[in-house]
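Schema walk-through. Below, the input block comes first and the output block second. Nothing else is stored per chain. Lengths vary across the set, and this one has 276 residues.
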Amino acid sequence: MSEKSILLILALAIGVGLSPARPQSSYDLFGSARADALGNSTTALLSASGVHANPGSRASTQATEAVVYTREGFGLSVLRYGATHVTVPFQWGALSTGGSTFGFEDYREVHLSGGYARSIQLGTTRSLHLGLTARYHHTSIKGFGAASTVALNTGVVLTLLRSLQLGAHATNVNAGTLAEEEPLPSTLAVGLSYQALKNVHVLVDLFKDIRFPMSVRGGLEVYPVSPLVLRAGITTAPTRFAGGVGIRLGPLRADVAAEQHQELGWSPSASIRCRW
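--- output ---
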């Protein structure tokens, strides 16, 4: 096994929480610098964008939306991840598609997805947003071959009040596996999104991978002046701190973020979102 492969496995095992024996990372759970800066506590955030977002949140999209995202784990080029995602709304619901890639010559992951989401009005202020995404996973390891499978992700966001949403997001509900006894990560997240003030957003999630202890994720988003957005976040198990800045210019939004792992260092990311 090459030096790069060893570096990859060690970084994933310590930083992302995977056993070194597993051939699949959790990098497909990332998808926007906004989410990174908020500690990925975006389960109940209706305006979340990206391939990682709760499938139910896409039902609230009012315009066609495209997101391009890149992340470099712990500042290492061999841990570089890139993703793109598009959501198109219709009267009968929203369709989405996207793709992402992670790795290098000796180890490569490719993910392709397609999804559908729809909103149901429950009254003057309450509404239910439902979504389902099918995600194709392909992993190749030099000298070991390749494997593919399809995982189903589902999610729901319930608007309780105009300023309060409750969300839930489950990944790999069909228990898809790349190889015998090597399942993809199956996760469940439950979260709240609260618009504390007009320019202050508070987020909190409980996140559980079935193989690992539950983690708590929290985020704070503040709009001090237009078009500037400031963000901060924290994630436990393992403990990571994050922060970032966003700029909103009409239909364009540019975000940058950085997450700090106490042992492995910083993971910078950036994303651009366009609506039309």
